[in-house]
Amino acid sequence: MQLTRHTDYAFRVLIYLSSVEEGKLSTVGEIAEIFQVPINHLTKVVQQLGKAGFIITLRGKNGGIRLAHDPESILLGSVVRAMEATLDPVNCSQPLCRLKINCRLKPILNRAIQSFIETLDEYTLADISQNKEVQTLLVTEL
Amino acid sequence: MQLTRHTDYAFRVLIYLSSVEEGKLSTVGEIAEIFQVPINHLTKVVQQLGKAGFIITLRGKNGGIRLAHDPESILLGSVVRAMEATLDPVNCSQPLCRLKINCRLKPILNRAIQSFIETLDEYTLADISQNKEVQTLLVTEL
């Protein structure tokens, strides 16, 4: 059981954006280079973060991306909810599980997923922001 | 974020074995047919359940499998711990995340996974056993 790489990269983008100098715009290319991850995948992640309202994209020559809200107001569980394709703990439909109608396991698994998200919601993006580390990355030879 | 099919099938096998008549031995073929899942995959699941001490395999012509313990003593979290290939919420090593050494996110994600498992550990196999439903499946035309 693992978060998708999509959500993993979303966290890295948000950590990065919350850690750079205030007011500074960043680019997807810069973040892809820092984390050495594919720019195509990161572009999709950034688009979804934009649609979900976590970041703002400013177009044009001097454009870029920045956080749409203060890091203190972004709950970590909300990132998982927005980025994971599914929070369904098991797939009972393909193939169709014959216990589906009266299953007693599924509600318990759903409760466990809820606990997972609620634990994340005890923290905000500000708790995982890493100013010093990101500043170091910015000056480190790649 | 989803449990692997391996763990999903493990739960189905355990639900089945906890629901059949006491003392009765079951076969992998019978369970594969009931749930209409591939017998090869189910065989691997059953082998792992055996190694982890959840079930006992009796060999020979009249052999089969049965639970090794009372359903009341099998915590649901222990099934996930035994069957999931990883409970590492993200893969920070491939590709290597450059924030890995000082990451503040990973300990929070690990705490959330812990909450997931602890919620499951509030329940036992007896809570998800389905005697009536399995009896119905056994007599249902496939």
List its salient traits.
homodimer; 142 residues; mainly alpha; 7 helices; 6% strand
Short note summarizing the structure:
Two copies of one chain form a homodimer. Chain A is mainly α and 142 residues long. Helices cover 51% and strands 6% of the residues of chain A.
Order of helices and strands of chain A: HHHEEHHHH
Structure class of chain A: mainly alpha
Shape of chain A: elongated
Q: Helical stretch count of chain A?
A: 7
Radius of gyration of chain A: 18 Å
The total tally of domains of chain A equals 1
- Residues in helices of chain A, as a percent range: 40-55%
* CATH topology value of chain A: Arc Repressor Mutant, subunit A
What is the arithmetic mean of pLDDT of chain A? 89
CATH superfamily grouping of chain A = Winged helix-like DNA-binding domain superfamily/Winged helix DNA-binding domain
Can you describe what's shown?
2 copies of one chain form a homodimer. The first copy, chain A, has 142 residues and is mostly helical. Chain A has a single domain (5-86, 124-141), classed as Orthogonal Bundle (Arc Repressor Mutant, subunit A). Chain A contains 7 helices and 2 strands, in the order H-H-H-E-E-H-H-H-H. Chain A has helices at residues 5-19, 28-35, 39-51, 76-83, 105-120, 125-128, 131-139, and strands spanning 55-58, 64-67. A two-stranded antiparallel ribbon of chain A has the order 1-2. In chain A, helix 1 (5-19) crosses helix 3, helix 2 crosses helix 3 (39-51) and helix 4 (76-83) crosses helix 5 (105-120). At the A-B interface, helix 1, helix 5 and helix 7 of A face helix 1, helix 5 and helix 7 of B.
